[in-house]
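Archive record:
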Amino acid sequence: MMEHTEQEGRRPANDGPKAAARNRAALVAAAREIFAEHGLEAPLSAIARRAGVGQGVLYRHFPDRTAAVAAVLEENVRQVEQAADAEGATFADVLGVLTWHLAESAAFIGLLHADRAGSRSGIRAHAMVLSERVERALRSHLPDSHRLSAANDLVLAVAMVSAAVIGPTRGERELRALAAWRLLDVEVGPVRAFGG
């Protein structure tokens, strides 16, 4: 009796939910990169190609551009929250993760300027909730005596820094963000994705 071996051209076994979770994670990572490189109007087909999946898989997870942007924003906010919840985290550490997302994700900058979301109230309301979650994560480590502890100073500082995050490359955007924090005399920890 012949033993079954994987033959060339044979389709791999369907991994079901494991494959779906992998595909979704790959799509979110690809969407973050594509939106950062080409803006929010980048073709969705570029996201599918970067993730290594077909467009059918893309549309199964994200039926439209708004859903893809929302997934990137949610992941960004989740990472900021995870950084805030990490044992021994400091305000500077959480700010480092936030700054990484500012330099990495054009969509994230839009979130922090949610009042510009226009007349689409559903998108604006969702963006406001996510923005409040970012503020809550930052405030959880903000010492009472910190220069940004007054009423709206933290939100204003983040908006000011995010407005300064421009440039054609991720490296340039990070340098501008760090320069803006320096001008505000605010210490920032390592600029990295959470867990990175």
Remarks:
- The two ends are 49 Å apart (CA to CA).
- The first helix runs from residue 17 to 38.
